[in-house]
Amino acid sequence: MIGKAVFWIVVLLIIVGGLGACLSNSLIYAVLFLLLLMGSVGGLYVYLGSPFLGMMQILIYLGAVGILLVFSVMLAGPFWFKPKERGGFLKIGIGVVLGLGVILVLWKGISEYEIRIGPERVSQVNKLGKLLLTEYALPFELVSLLIVISIIGAIMLGILGRKKEEKDALE
Q: Which domain holds residue 46?
């Protein structure tokens, strides 16, 4: 009973985070809702019996990508981001049709999925770790390099933004 309650609380947090990220008027609030979404997905992975995947989700997305997004928004300044245009019914209709299409594809995939429970689940984490550090070491390091380049880009945006603000203030 408690397990079902925890599951539905995590699902509710995922829905709130997704809707908040999409519907928020403030960019910083949208990023914070996105962090709530990513953290909740990590919690869902832990609940579903994959603590390694859950911790990686939390570590990578909340620890690296989330902080990067927050710093990018804070450093860039408000002049980089124009207010959202409020769309008409066409945009809402396209969003609803695309959302229903995604739900249909997920439903089809979930309904045909065969659940396998057994001892091979434990060994999958060992295989994943060995693959990440042997065969997929180069892509793993390239992702790290991409994150470093993104951080440098965010800092550069912040520096350029401050110079532009100073220039506009002097004029």
A: 2-82+114-170
Average pLDDT for residues 86-102, to the nearest whole number?
79
CATH code, 44: 1.20.120.1200
Alpha-helical runs (H) found in 24-136: 27-47, 51-57, 67-76, 89-111, 120-133
Split into its structural domains, the chain has a count of 1
Predicted TM-score of the model (pTM):
0.57
Quickly tell me which residue has 């990018």 as its tokens. 72
| Residue burial 14-46, b: 16+ Cβ < 10 Å; e: rest | beebbebbeebeebeebbbbbbbbbbbbbbbbb
Question: Other CB atoms closer than 10 Å to residue 71's CB: what's the count?
Answer: 16
Torsion of CA 108, 114, 115, 121, to 10 degrees: -110
Convert the pLDDT of each residue in 127-147 to its tens digit: 777 887 788 888 878 887 887
Domain assignment present for 25: yes
Q: List pLDDT tens digits, range 15-55.
A: 999 988 888 887 778 888 988 998 999 888 888 888 888 88
Q: Which residue has the tokens 């509710």?
A: 12
Looking at residue 58, its amino acid is I
Q: What is the DSSP letter of 169?
A: H
